[in-house]
């Protein structure tokens, strides 16, 4: 129990994202794939602020993310017809083409990750992760951003 919990989690994350990066080399983007999935899963009804709130990211960081996705042809901002002060983040045709591929890569990667584990073990893993997140929810950590880029 002396090893910081972060080390095996970071190691796992590196392996997971390395596999993901290898499988998605053909895409025009090398990060923020999950945000495209969130937008798609929410039927393109999320504002930049709503995405930031879901991911616990500050406004300025979200601006950079949306600018990156926009400059690579994956999203665009559109005034919300219900509240003109807001901008909805919409997917482009390129994003709509690539999102099913991204979802499939994540699905296959999850299958590979959970290979040789029973449904009960996977459920326990997910429960443990949720409990750890809840245990740390009260702390006020310094905000950090991890950016994994393809080499």
Explain what you see.
There is one protein chain. Helix content is 58%, strand content 7%. It contains six helices and two strands, in the order ααααββαα. α1 (6-23) packs across α5 (93-113). The longest helix has 21 residues, at 93-113. The two termini are 34 Å apart.
List keywords for this structure.
58% helix, mainly alpha, 151 residues, two-stranded antiparallel sheet, 2 strands
- For the secondary structure, the number of strands is 2
Share of helical residues: 55-70%
In whole angstroms, the N-to-C terminal distance is 34 Å
Strand order of the largest sheet: 1-2
Outline: globular
Sheet having the most strands: 2 strands, antiparallel
Low-confidence stretches: none
Percent of residues in beta strands: 5-15%
Class by SSE composition: mainly alpha
What Rg do the Cα atoms give?
A: 17 Å
String of helices and strands: HHHHEEHH
Which whole number gives the mean pLDDT? 91
Q: In DSSP terms, counting alpha (H) and pi (I) runs of 4 or more, how many helices?
A: 6
């Amino acid at each position: 129990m002396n090893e910081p919990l972060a080390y095996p989690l970071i190691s796992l994350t590196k392996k997971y994202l390395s596999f993901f990066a290898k499988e998605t080399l053909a895409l025009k983007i090398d990060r923020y794939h999950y945000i495209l999935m969130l937008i798609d899963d929410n039927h393109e009804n999320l504002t930049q602020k709503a995405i930031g709130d879901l991911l616990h990211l500050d406004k300025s960081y979200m601006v950079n993310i949306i600018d990156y996705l926009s400059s690579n042809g994956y999203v665009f901002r559109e005034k919300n017809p219900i509240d003109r002060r807001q901008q909805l983040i919409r997917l482009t045709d390129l994003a709509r083409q690539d999102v099913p591929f991204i979802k499939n890569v994540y699905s296959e990667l999850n299958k590979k990750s959970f290979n040789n584990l029973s449904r009960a073990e996977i459920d326990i893993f997910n429960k443990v992760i949720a409990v750890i997140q809840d245990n740390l929810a009260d702390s006020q950590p310094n905000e950090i951003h991890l950016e994994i880029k393809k080499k």
